[in-house]
């Protein structure tokens, strides 16, 4: 990947610099469950590029091995990726773990169990933010999240969306670096597409078309990324981290604990 390939994003970042603004980014990675070579690669990339990562972790699948793997990763925070990442929707309705196909009490009980487990396992590395599997959650369930102790919600970005409860900050994913429509043949979504998604969100924030306080999010899935996706993410981190108008935020900064 050449430096010129980043121009679509760098031009927008230059506009932020010229306006005296700071462009805030964050990194979310989904489906963490156990140690692996790809996870080691993610941890190394985060450390080397000094970019914090929100590791969306499946509570039912996480345990002591994952805790040990990330315990010394100073730039990694754990988020909650549903409960078991199991689809409960009928055939043809899409994949939903947190849809209206089950009672809210059952889903809330599962989420509470998962939240407790991650809090016990990861202690201060855990930030109580819910990342719904498949980026889908029943709107009726969202209102209960602050009562359950969640500070935030992160799904897939839509320009028009319902306002969240007052005590719940939403920071969605704006650029998924993978193309999923040909599963199981998941592949890199492409440099131009990914950069345009990020540049468009930044422009919308800069011009008042989108919520200015929401950081622009890059979404990865370490277990299924191909070489091109890894190369893009590393090049993105290097190019943005070198830009004076950019800051990469940690989940602990986006969703701070209440004093």
What is the rounded Rg? 18 Å
Structural class: alpha/beta
Please tell me what the overall shape is.
Answer: globular
Largest sheet: 9 strands, parallel
Number of strands: 11
Query: Please, how many helices?
Result: 8
Low-confidence stretches: none
Task: Give the SSE string.
Answer: HEHEHEHEHEEEEEHEHEH
Helix percentage range: 25-40%
**What do the pLDDT scores average to?**
95
How far the N terminus sits from the C terminus, by CA atoms, comes to: 44 Å
Strand content: 15-25%
Explain this structure to me?
With 259 residues, this protein is α/β, with parallel strands linked by helices. Helix content is 35%, strand content 17%. Strand 3, helix 4 and strand 4 form a beta-alpha-beta unit.
What keyword list fits this structure?
single chain, 259 residues, alpha/beta, 9-stranded parallel beta sheet, two-stranded antiparallel sheet, 8 helices, 17% strand
């Amino acid at each position: 990947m050449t430096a010129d390939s980043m121009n679509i994003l760098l031009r927008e970042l230059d506009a932020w610099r010229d306006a005296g603004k700071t462009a805030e980014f964050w990194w979310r990675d989904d489906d963490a469950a156990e140690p692996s070579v790809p996870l080691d690669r993610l941890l190394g990339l985060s450390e080397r590029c000094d970019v914090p990562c929100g590791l969306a972790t499946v509570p039912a699948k996480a345990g002591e091995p994952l805790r040990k793997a990330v315990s010394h990763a100073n730039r990694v925070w754990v988020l909650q990726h549903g409960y078991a990442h199991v689809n409960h929707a009928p055939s043809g309705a899409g994949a939903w773990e947190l849809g209206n196909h089950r009672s809210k009490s059952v889903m809330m009980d599962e989420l509470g169990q998962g939240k407790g487990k991650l809090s016990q396992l990861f202690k201060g590395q855990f930030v109580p933010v819910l990342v719904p599997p498949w980026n889908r959650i029943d709107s009726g369930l969202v209102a209960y999240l602050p009562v359950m102790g969640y500070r935030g919600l992160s799904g897939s970005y839509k320009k028009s969306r319902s306002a969240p409860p007052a005590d719940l900050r939403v920071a969605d994913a704006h650029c998924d670096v993978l193309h999923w429509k040909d599963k199981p043949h998941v592949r890199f979504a492409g440099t131009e597409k990914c950069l345009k998604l990020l540049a468009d969100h930044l422009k919308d924030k800069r011009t008042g078309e989108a919520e200015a306080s929401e950081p622009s999010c890059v979404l990865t899935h370490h277990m299924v990324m191909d070489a091109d996706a890894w190369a893009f993410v590393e090049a993105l981190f290097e190019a943005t981290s070198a830009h004076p108008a950019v800051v990469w935020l940690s989940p602990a900064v986006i969703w701070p604990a209440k004093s």
